[in-house]
Design a protein that fits this description.
Number of helices: 7
CATH architecture of the largest domain: 2-Layer Sandwich
Number of strands: 6
Helix content: 40-55%
Strand content: 15-25%
Largest sheet: 6 strands, mixed
Shape: globular
Order of helices and strands: HHHHEHEHEEEEH
Mean pLDDT: 85
Number of domains: 2
Radius of gyration: 18 Å
Strand order of the largest sheet: 1-2-5-4-3-6
């Protein structure tokens, strides 16, 4: 349904449903939130789906109205991310994901990209410090090339930390999590520190 002002009310409704799912259920995957929201709204037409920017705007509105403690929680997550970045400083850590962009919910995962030409050295680093971890993989895209990057996962204060292992040359690439998606934003330690200081 399109209102006389040119607004697409169905699209707005789905954006707000998706924002609520992300805020309440801790969903970080925009595509998943959109699909769930569309099902809730009974919409099968994919052209009616909002883009990520529309969902982010709806998420900011939702948090201002219903999650007044969100800024304090986000600050805590960013501080924890900074502490872990200091811990892994030798691997040139960069923060990505919802903790960086400010959309982190209560079940947020801290995503860090680490750069080393010897990925095993990061595993040894964890093992030598007695940190229990599990292994996974993340499908990334650089231009037309897709590849799987190893991911090491551990917990710190009940928060999951995901370390995506990349080579030093990958740092020059504009990486995406899907072929048509946006470039993954990443931030060095100084930027995260500035975000915390800015409140």
């Amino acid at each position: 349904m399109t209102h006389g002002t040119g607004r697409n009310l169905t699209r707005e409704h789905i954006a707000h449903l998706a924002a609520r799912l992300m805020a309440q259920d801790g969903i970080e995957d925009y595509a998943l939130a959109k699909r769930k929201a569309a099902r809730q709204a009974g919409v099968a037409e994919t052209r009616q789906l909002p883009n990520n920017d529309e969902i982010e705007a709806a998420l900011r509105v939702y948090r201002e109205l219903y999650q007044r403690k969100h800024p304090a929680q986000l600050r805590e997550l960013r501080q924890l991310a900074l502490d872990v970045m200091d811990e892994f400083a030798e691997f040139n850590p960069h923060l990505t994901g919802s903790v960086l962009n400010g959309n982190a919910g209560k079940y947020a995962v801290i995503h860090l990209q680490l750069f080393s030409d010897n990925g095993k050295s990061i595993e040894h680093y964890l093992l030598n410090r007695g940190i229990d971890f599990s292994s996974g993989a993340a499908r990334l895209h650089a231009g037309d090339t897709a590849f799987d990057a190893p991911v090491l996962i551990f917990e710190r204060y009940s928060v999951e930390i995901h370390l995506t292992l990349l080579s030093s040359r990958d740092q020059r690439l504009q990486l995406k999590s899907s072929p048509g998606g946006r470039t993954i934003e990443r931030a060095k330690r100084e930027v995260v520190e500035a975000l915390i200081a800015a409140g």
